[in-house]
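User: Could you walk me through two proteins back to back? I'd like the raw sequence and the structure tokens for each, with a short line separating them so I can tell where one ends and the next begins.

Assistant: Of course. Protein one, sequence then structure:
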Amino acid sequence: MAIADFVKSARESFWVGWKIESNWTDPVLFATYQIIRPLASLMIVGFIVILGAATSQYLAWVIVGSAFYAYVLQVMLGMAILVFVDRNRYEVLKNIYISPGTLHPYVIGRGLVSVLNGTISVVLTLLFSVAIFNGLLHMNIPLDLLGVNLLMLLPAVVLGIISLLAIGYMLCAVNIVSNRMEFILGDSVSGVFFLLGGVIFPISFLPEQIQRISNALPVTYFLNTVRESFGLLPPGNLPPGNYMSDLGILGLTTLAALILGVSVFRLAERRAKRLGLFDRKSEY
């Protein structure tokens, strides 16, 4: 029964989040934003690679990494601002906290809205990349959307999404006990993942000390496994990745992120309850 209540609360929270992000604004504006943003990012990265005289194999590698980075961006930005919006703008966070459903299914439901938006961005980015670079520019990049191995792609995406939601949990926890970081936290964390996660270049290009950090991030293995499901090889003379090894490490880092995320969130809850932070407003 508890699981059914949890799922029901998460489902209702998802619907509320979708209403906030879509139906409560102009539908045309929302749809345009969902299309233009990933397309603009794709064009910037793609033409930088083209001007750098990179190979078509490298361009395909970059496109897939940039496309699936949309999950990182959407979840980090969406969950980082969640507490601020509900505590300051709508003033409902305290009501949600004392309700029987608690904050946990609510945060997950709202996070899944970001996952849906990320999925839309991923699909649009991949479709536009093939249409523009192969169809319009005739570059013949080795990106076969129909030939992707779904048995490899789906586990990678599921584990990647779970790890990102766990990290988003930590961002919510930080903002529960703080009221000065909500506008920069999502951008800052997603920016770190963009640099260290191997979005546009392999992490082996980074300094050795920085590589150690990259090797501990689930985002790194998420993008590795996704690219391997598309049959893409790393640029240059780097050895090909091992899908099962990367998937196993992704599972371990996802589990670590889950444990850390839930622990940090519970600590933040207790501190916020003790200091009365659930109804604190930032008047600026």
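----
Protein two, same layout:
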Amino acid sequence: MKRFGCICLIVFLIAGMLLAWWQRDLLEAFLFRFAGITAGENSRPMDWLEDHFSAGEDNEHPITNVKILARQITAGAASDYEKLYAIYDWVTHNIAYDVEKAANVDAYGSGAKYALEKRKGICHDYADLTRALLRAAGIKATYEKGEVHPAPGKTERHAWNNALIGDTWYALDTTWGAGFVDEEKGIFIQRPSRLYLTTPEELARLHSDPAYKEEREREWQRVLAAAAEPVYLQEYEARLLELFNEERAAAGLKPLAAETRLLPAVRQDAVAASERACREEEHSLDSLKAEIEKMARQLRLAKAGMHMFAFWDYPLPAAEELCRRIISEGETYLFEEGFDALAVALVSRGNLIVVSMVCLAYY
């Protein structure tokens, strides 16, 4: 009977191992359960680094296995440095800052697993996930924490990472690199930036000097805008004209017609203005004025009033918000009598928005 029991046990173990091999995700758990292996700090039976919850790539079933994800993120990377950039970019593009959790940390999960499952987190979750992905990609990485000063008079606890490639240490703050919190609306705005993948010395200054941080962020925005192609937003142009006419009607003024014949020249001027804004240079309307004078007889122009507005903002505000900003400037011809038409062009370039306007009066 004892011999029969041993045979049954052996058969059971072999069958279990074959089944576990067939269901590979269960193999490790099976071995720990029946072989009596004791899990230490670096060897846990159900270590989430090894546990493959889901291999789907859609939003409903995201990958939560850090090793599989690290391999996918760094596929095609020719060096550890390229892997570093790929991991930083993935985290900053795909993990959102959890504003609700930040207000009540104890009520939520924590760490790399939480960030991957929820696709959001706070600084600890960002740093824990970044470290896990870097280590899974074979890069030595540390978890750093301390006090930072994100704005004048503001101090908070924060977490980030250092990573070693060759003999050089790099610093990564994937939380700040992912975007920012709109304090007025209480929402997170995903705006990935590589500004916070740098040297430990540079990151320390960004963490400690709010004025320097703001200066570097403006510089980064200008660099990105200069590299971006200008985009004409025709739907905004049409909507702005409608909104301006609503404001004119409220002021007892006649509506302005759309002057499309002048629109190409106005758009071209908006692009030129965006290029100069990227270089922090003043923009002159002289070129646009010369173009208008060339067309004056054809258009039967009696007079024209020109204005250009540049805004740095992200994401692109609604047309209603842009209308309010333009009117608040006060330096427009929108509420002057005697004008008959308007040519308005809006160009978006990175985080830069340029609005060029010409009010026209005909004879």
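The first strand starts at residue 96 and ends at 97.

Let me know if you want the two compared in more detail.
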